[in-house]
């Protein structure tokens, strides 16, 4: 099962993913949630609580990556769980995606470490 918690702050959307990103309902849920945010500047996927991911999940992340790039939307993956990080490393996708810590993503978004430290997103 995949649970998604969506938080919007101006033109930044944070999607916290909890559970499994696997082929079927979970992949559809993730894709539909992100695709609904086509009027944003940045989509941040918090992957810290993702326990497993199959080829369908990887395919969904690649699809979302292409979708966001074609629309000029930044897609950032933050705090991938050990399982997700290992999977992305093994498939060489970690070199394709923008992956960082949540704090580093906040700093990049707002452009100032001091402001980011005070921000609710960090």
Outline:
This protein is of the alpha/beta class and 122 residues long.
Walk me through what this model shows.
By secondary structure, the protein is of the alpha/beta class. The C terminus is likely disordered. The radius of gyration is 14 Å and the shape is globular. It has a single domain, classed as Transcription Regulator spoIIAA (2-Layer Sandwich). It contains 5 helices and 5 strands. The longest helix has 16 residues. 42% of the residues lie in helices and 31% in strands. It has a 5-stranded mixed beta sheet. Helix 1 runs parallel beside helix 2.
Shape summary: globular
SS elements, strand count: 5
**Largest sheet composition:** 5 strands, mixed
The appropriate CATH architecture is 2-Layer Sandwich
Series of H and E elements = EEHEHEHEHH
Topology of helices and strands:
Blueprint: E1 2-9, E2 12-21, H1 25-35, E3 42-53, H2 55-70, E4 74-78, H3 82-90, E5 98-100, H4 102-110, H5 113-118
Parallel strand pairs: 2-3, 3-4, 4-5
Antiparallel strand pairs: 1-2
Helix pairs in contact: 1-2
């Amino acid at each position: 099962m995949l649970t998604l918690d969506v938080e919007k702050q101006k033109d930044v959307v944070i999607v916290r993913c909890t559970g499994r990103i696997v082929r079927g309902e979970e992949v559809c849920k993730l894709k539909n949630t992100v695709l609904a945010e086509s009027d944003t500047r940045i989509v941040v996927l918090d992957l810290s609580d993702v326990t497993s991911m199959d080829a369908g999940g990887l395919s969904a992340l690649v699809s979302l990556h292409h979708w966001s790039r074609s629309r000029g939307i930044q897609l950032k993956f933050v705090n991938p769980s050990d399982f997700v990080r290992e999977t992305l490393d093994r498939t060489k996708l970690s070199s394709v995606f923008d992956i960082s810590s949540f704090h580093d993503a906040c700093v990049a978004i707002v452009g100032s470490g001091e402001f980011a430290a005070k921000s609710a997103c960090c």
